[in-house]
Specification:
By secondary structure, the protein is an alpha+beta fold. It contains 4 helices and 6 strands. The protein starts with 6 loop residues before the first strand and ends with a helix. This is Glutathione peroxidase.
């Protein structure tokens, strides 16, 4: 089993098979629009622009589990990210990342790293084969992950 075994949905309800990202390095992020870490959208977009043509994709999953910092609908979140941060990487439907209703993708990511998600903007780096490489806490700035991304893209 790999991350490519899962599917998710866009804000418009369209299903996306993660197998469509085979041969890509993926950075999964649980996001929130009203968080102290929200400015990380700028650097996440920067990573996507810098490394996207080399095989990186950033996938954003809005989550309202931490301090109610993602109160809008999935479509409102997608618009917010685009308008305020120029985000062009995929933003999916809102999900839970912890608890009994945690999205299966995030259950899998946590199982693979032995980690937990303590707050918004926790990041998971996945290699081209769909293996989870590492988890990064919210305080780790996206640009700090660039050297790891470069290694996986080589």
């Amino acid at each position: 089993m790999s991350i490519h075994s899962f599917s998710t949905r866009k804000p418009n309800g369209e299903t996306v098979e993660l197998s469509s990202y085979k041969d890509k390095v993926i950075l999964f992020v649980n996001t929130a629009s009203e968080c102290g870490f929200t400015p990380q959208f700028t650097d996440l977009q920067g990573l996507y622009e810098t490394y996207g043509n080399k095989g990186l994709v950033v996938l954003g999953f809005p989550c309202n589990q931490f301090g109610g910092q993602e109160p809008g609908t999935s479509s409102e979140v997608e618009s917010f990210c685009s308008l305020n941060f120029g985000v062009t990487f995929p933003i999916f439907e809102k999900v839970d990342v912890n608890g009994p209703n945690a999205d299966p993708i995030f259950q899998y990511l946590k199982e693979q790293t032995g980690g937990e998600i303590k707050w918004n903007f926790t990041k998971f780096l996945v290699d081209r084969q769909g293996r989870v490489v590492k988890q990064y806490d919210s305080s780790v700035k996206p640009l700090e992950i660039a050297p790891e991304i470069e290694k996986l893209l080589d």
